[in-house]
Design a protein that fits this description.
Number of strands: 0
Helix content: over 70%
Shape: globular
Structural class: mainly alpha
Strand content: under 5%
Order of helices and strands: HHHHHHHHHHHHHHHHHHH
Radius of gyration: 23 Å
Number of helices: 19
Largest sheet: none
Distance between the termini: 64 Å
């Protein structure tokens, strides 16, 4: 009898210890999840903030360096060309290297490339620094997607990436407002320095403190059952990824979506100043309406996808793009009605356009990788984001040339047409039977 009692107590003690260990492990994993999400969010917000001073500084740079609008457009190109090309040709390498180290390198090189930007006074060195920064930042989004998706899977992923996607808007808003204050208080030469120093410090925080999910490390075995274990395919290249159903169509759609978005990001302050005759400070602050709308739209994108559209990613994107087309059209029609109306229409346009970014650049790659049962999340995110950024390459020279030779009004009508075309491409992608789960 005593032996049975002792055995029972021993078993209870063992169960208690095992339960305690599991609870502690669960708490530790939960804490690591949110630390990873927070640091990835801060990292990409910082990367986005580094891009904003150029748009705010275009008018003073144009005046100080005697550059034309076309030349200003080529400064955009100097940054965005390597950004897009590196993402398309080499972004999938983030699946073969520690994502934490990749993100550290991105933050380090990006900050160093902008920290001396205001010290130069000619086109060539400015373009060179932008080229280096663009090439480095190309790896930022794929690395963040891989890090976050390692901790969050299943139904939680759309909500988490909705939250994570706000980093681009918050970084943009903060970077824009800070740059406006620096330009108005000092000069454009100081608009790049503070953000660069903060991102440089953040790079070392990421290196030493960002936790990586075990499932994100290719060297560690998976604890999933063999039937659903993901294939490791480190040799997959861009052309193989483009053969996956609906990827080509979504790449073209993102090409157009990003062209429209970056046209607003990079040229809106100059448009508001020259065409609608607001002061430089007013124009800079008003331009944040587009990004504030983007923040709100992105924040609620996960809720919209799950509650309104039942988890259908491509249907959600289609609705957002349609709303964006209407909002830009209303902005054109009401552009002479004053600051409040202008800001309201820009808010809605930004909310619709920017909210598509976490869907097409993060949620869709995750879902397609699960359908393919292959470890290609970073590769797909890189290709979709990189091919989309090819549209951004054209944004600078094209918008600059159109504005210089035909006027700002034509630019806005072109942007509406491109957004409509992107809507048709998303609906085309949704017709594939293979992607029925996404549409």
């Amino acid at each position: 009898m005593r032996e049975d009692e002792e055995a029972g107590r021993s078993e209870e003690t063992s169960n208690l210890v095992t339960g305690s260990r599991q609870m502690l492990q669960s708490l530790s994993e939960s804490r690591s999840q949110w630390i990873c999400l927070a640091l990835a969010w801060l990292s990409y917000a910082g990367i986005t903030a580094l891009r904003k001073p150029l748009g705010i500084s275009k008018k003073p740079i144009c005046n100080d360096l005697n550059l034309s609008k076309t030349e200003l457009g080529f400064l955009d190109l100097a940054f965005l060309l390597p950004y897009a090309l590196v993402q398309v040709t080499a972004g999938s390498k983030a699946d073969q290297v520690s994502a934490r180290f990749v993100l550290f390198a991105v933050l380090l090189v990006s900050s160093l490339s902008t920290i001396t930007f205001g010290m130069w006074s000619s086109f060539a060195p400015l373009a060179t620094l932008l080229f280096i920064g663009g090439a480095a930042q190309a790896f930022g989004w794929p690395a963040c997607v891989k890090l976050v998706s390692g901790w969050f899977t299943g139904h939680d992923s759309s909500k988490v990436f909705g939250i994570f996607g706000t980093c681009t808007s918050v970084g943009g808003i903060g970077g824009t407002m800070f740059a406006v204050w620096l330009v108005s208080r000092y000069s454009w030469h100081y608009a790049f320095l503070p953000q660069s120093v903060m991102v440089l410090a953040l790079s070392f925080v990421v290196l030493f403190f960002l936790p990586v999910a075990p499932s994100s490390e290719e060297s560690l075995p998976s604890d999933k059952p063999p039937a659903i274990e993901q294939k490791q395919d480190p040799s997959v290249d861009t052309f193989k990824l483009l053969k996956i159903q609906c990827v080509k169509e979504l790449c073209l759609a993102n090409f157009l979506i990003k062209l429209v978005r970056y046209a607003f990001f990079m040229w809106l302050p100059l448009y508001l100043s020259e065409q609608l005759h607001f002061s430089d400070t007013q124009a800079g602050m008003m331009s944040t309406s587009f990004e504030i709308g983007g923040f709100v739209g992105t924040l609620f994108s996960g809720y919209i996808i799950e509650k309104v559209f039942g988890g259908k990613l491509l249907t959600s994107m289609s609705a957002l793009l349609l709303f964006g087309c209407v909002s830009i059209g209303l902005f054109i029609a009401t552009s002479k009605m004053g600051m409040v109306v202008n800001c309201t229409m820009l808010f809605f346009a930004g909310g619709a356009n920017v909210a598509t970014d976490p869907i097409i650049s993060a949620m869709v790659p995750m879902s397609l990788a699960e359908l393919e049962r292959s470890n290609i999340k970073a590769g797909l995110a890189s290709v979709l984001n990189g091919m989309g950024s090819m549209g951004v390459i054209l944004e600078g020279p094209v918008i600059g040339a159109i504005a210089q030779y035909t006027g700002w009004s034509v630019c806005l009508y072109v942007l509406v047409a491109l957004q409509v075309l992107s809507l048709f491409l998303v609906r085309w992608a949704a017709t594939y039977q293979r992607t029925a789960a996404l549409s």
